[in-house]
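Bit of a strange request maybe. I'm writing a small parser for structure token strings and I need a real example to test against, not something I typed by hand. Could someone generate the tokens for this chain?
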Amino acid sequence: MARYPKAAWIPSSAENYRQGRTQPVTELVIHTTEGSNVEALHTWLTAPSEPDLSVHFAVDQVGNVYQYVDTDDTAYHARSHNSFSVGIEHVGYAGDPSTWTSEMVEASAELAAWINTQHPGIVLDEAHVVAHGSFQDDRTDPGPYFPWSNSLTRARGYRSGNFVASIFGGGRSSVVVVVVAALAIAMLWSK
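Reply from user aminoacidic:
Good idea to test on real output. This should exercise your parser:
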């Protein structure tokens, strides 16, 4: 079972996804909801009246993360890519640059790093983290304002941080050790 510990769990109706996977997971699909009401999104994604419609996660503009489908299961968010992808919806509009708040981008990057730990086939690069609109002709999301470079850099940074923390045993003390070590190196280089 792969559930993100920082997400609110709002389970999708069983009719809206398939348990298990038929292929290895190798892709992360970035979406926008084309709406701003997160409560309406929850209702829409959990209603049994919406068969074959689901997504693994949503991130709102203040950085809250919601999970609807376990990443070990197949959500219906990307047509022919469903069987090998994980999907993240971002609350907002593809054509609106104000959708991409720093809180949303940060939460999404941290989530992407966690997804990578669960599904290492999703490399945190442009070939594996893709726009919904890049393969589905009737979609444009996440649109021209999604901060691709910043988002992938942040995700890789979170992933590296998780790796470094695991070397030191995890937890807050590991972060302190890493920060102190980085400061010591910076001080030596500045002399």
